[in-house]
Amino acid sequence: MSVTKSINDEIKNLSEVSFTEIYGNRNREISIEISENSLEKYNLTFDEIAFAINMGSIDLPGGVISSTKGDLLIRTVGQSYKGDEFENIVIRTNANGSTLLLKDVAVIKDTFEDVDKFFKWNGTKAMFISVNLVGDQDVLDASDQLRNFVKNKKNDMPENIQIDYWYDQARFLEDRINILYKNFAIGMCLVLILLTMFLRPSVAFWVAMGIPISFGGALLLLPLLGVTINVLSTFMFIVVLGIVVDDAIIVGENVFRRRIKLKEDNFTSTVKGTMEVMLPVFFGILTTIVVFAPMLDLAGDTGPIWRTFPLTAIPILVFSLIESTTILPAHLNHAGEWFQYRFVKFGNILRSARNYFSKKLYTFVDDNWLPLVKKSIKNRYQTVSIFVGVLLISFSLLAGGWVKWQFFPVLEAEEVAIVIDLPEGTPIDTTEKVTKMVEMEALKLKNELNTENNRKIISHVMTTVGDQYFSAQEAESSPTGPVLKASSTPHLGEVVVILTPADSRWGLTGAYDIINILRERVGIIPGVERLNFSANIFSAGKPIHFEFSGNNFDDLNRVIKNTRLLLSNYAGIYDLNDSDKIGKSELQIELLPAAEAYGLTTAIIAKQVRQAFYGEEVQRIQRQDDDIKVMLKLTKIERDNARTLENLRIRTNTGIKIPLYAVAKVKEIPGKSAIKRIDGKRVVEITSDVDISKNTSSMILSTIIGPEGNPINSLKNILDKEPGVSFALAGEPAEQAEQLQDIFVKFGIAIFTIFVLLAIPLKSYFKPLIILSAIPFGMVGAILGHLMLFQPMSVLSLLGVVALSGVVVNDSLLLVVFVNRAKENGDDTLTAVIDAVRSRFRPVILTSLTTFLGIAPLLFNQSTQVLFLKPMAISLGIGILFATFVILLLVPVSYVIIDDFINLISRNKKKSA
């Protein structure tokens, strides 16, 4: 204990540490224990002993004497600070002059308070120091200081004490920043290489420079918007890496096209090329911002988390627009072939490569793509039918379970938490025995895996008895917040298996592999109410979570029993629990009429019972840094015996001693662990996890819960038998229902807003439908992407589709605007469409490929820091590839169909006129 306090003091002196907290320590306490027999023998009461202690252990100032030499303070010194100093306090002076001392009637212990909680580290008793930061302190600097402190301190520790460093959350931030730099560098190189293949090196360079400029501008604004560099904002930079250059590509490619094709000088091609695409670029960015806007205020507990996405993306897009329409044209105006002249040989190679790829691209367009577009336009209604069929098939893959749905993706952590709940009232010794069984299996597996693989798989095993420390800390950061528990929880236990970083053991053993092994080895432990295995970084709640409410306990119990039986029949269901737990049994004391005859009240009896069993805090003294309680109570043997309560002597005001059983009735009442009520009705919850390799929560719920959240089929039959019991979804199912509905509503509003915005540059209410028709097909690419990469779809996948919609609208708008301009110049619809497809093929392909390449490092990165956003990356990355096919084929076909419709209306108007 003294070593821990000394280290804690040293850590608090580090410049980047705000405050620390010690876990696993026991406060010192001076315990004065007196038996019931001693009280009876010497005719004493707790109040008399407490009074004597306070009178015999005291420091009291007595005033001030003023003299010529100065003021002198008077103080009576008699305060006891150690256990043995209390022994000689006089309790009573007898008539014969003898004294009764405290040590004559009581056992005095200067030790630690009884706490039903302790920690173990790799099987050895341990204490923990939690280090926290506040304000503007830098977490990375603090982490470096602590690592160096522990490293240096290891050599100075006593022989029987070790120090270690664990749960360094700064490491995750470092990993995210490193991944950002790495993915940014890879994405930047891929984008630059791609642009150089089709554009001049100088143009490609200035287009790519839009990335750091847009990112830099956004970084200046993010603190003002309340956004920090965290996992969401960091990866949003990676997600929009390819999107950022879309506007620059459109402007740069058009300027480059005019300069080569129309032989215009630098100034003319720059001004006309920029102004020619200014309208679609501006409205493209505007519509992309509108698409991101719904994420600013999504419903549900997890809704506020997603607002980081738009708050990060929107500033980047705004600066991208400013850069591509002002700074980029200024650079393109003087961009020449300086690279070719400076590095003649390499410049010639680049020019030859560019000419080769451009020639191949347009050969493909002229010989393959344009004939396909013409044929599709000729059979346009059949073409639309095929696309609609593909759309329906892709949705059927999701509905049929080929592509699994999971509201929130399972994110594998680097810690496996095994939570153990015994019935309330279980003594700490029993909890320790049960917890040790799990701990021994974890330590055994640690030795096996680390030996078999010749590398460390499991680094440590932490055990908590009397608490569930790690799970409670994880709950603090969950969207629903921590779960409140009683201060004394000797019936709880926890074993945390701490794995090495996932990147160092990739392909060997994952957290869920550890869970499967330990679940099989531990098996079912008799007497354990809950044995839960988890390894989630983040959770929106249990995938199965029902709430049943009613006034009749028997009706509720029958519903709970039958619902548990129903759920247990589904494949993949595990850790099935309900909240109807038996709590500690209570010994309730009720006064008998005889108590009144002795002048006893409830308060008098309650006080004496509390003094005997809980104890009375007689004094509180300060000894060095310790705040020590002086507690007066019965001996531990008597306190742990229920018969002591019944035989306890109650002292009346007249000095008569009466057994408790003579004036009060003691009865044992079975208690409940916790009783939850909503609107006055008692609520019992059923929760369960689902093994996604065998089933999904959505597939299970679809068989017993209707679209509006009402019970159907078997669950409805169970509830129909108990009309007094009500049902409601909770946890992840309720979060899913609320948030998905909000996403669809707000995304629908965003789509309508986009329709209104597109009607301005297109000067039509029908032509925006051409662009909007391409949005659903982004979902097709997202579903196929998840199917190919064997990933379940989640709410993050939908948010990726939302981001994808902005890119789809941007490219489609560019195509439609060029068709409109050609028609304004006198071209017929078919010619205008074909020419627009040919002239816009390269920028559309480039914007799509840069978006894909910018996000590609995320798709193929296996770090646990990337898995969080992988569903979103799949939707955007794979979705844009399919959406490009749709833009360059379906949009031209849709334009001709809309044109047919407009012409039909015009002819009907002429006939009616």
Residue share in helix = 55-70%
Strand element count = 25
The percentage of residues in β strands lies in: 15-25%
Structural class by secondary-structure content: alpha+beta
Low-confidence stretches: 338-344, 478-487
Rounded mean pLDDT score:
80
- The value of Rg in angstroms is 37 Å
First CA to last CA: what distance? Answer: 98 Å
DSSP helical segment count = 35
Reported for the largest beta sheet, the result is: 6 strands, antiparallel
* Widest sheet, order of strands: 9-8-12-13-11-14
Global shape: elongated
Description:
This protein has a six-stranded antiparallel sheet with strand order 9-8-12-13-11-14, with helices on both faces. Strands 15, 16, 23, 24 and 25 form a five-stranded antiparallel sheet that branches. Strands 7-2-19-18 form a four-stranded mixed sheet. A hairpin with a 5-residue loop joins strand 20 (649-651) and strand 21 (657-659). The N and C termini lie far apart (98 Å). With 913 residues, the protein is α+β, with helices and mostly antiparallel strands. The relative contact order is 0.11. The protein contains 35 helices and 25 strands.
Question: Keywords for this structure?
Answer:
913 residues; single chain; alpha+beta
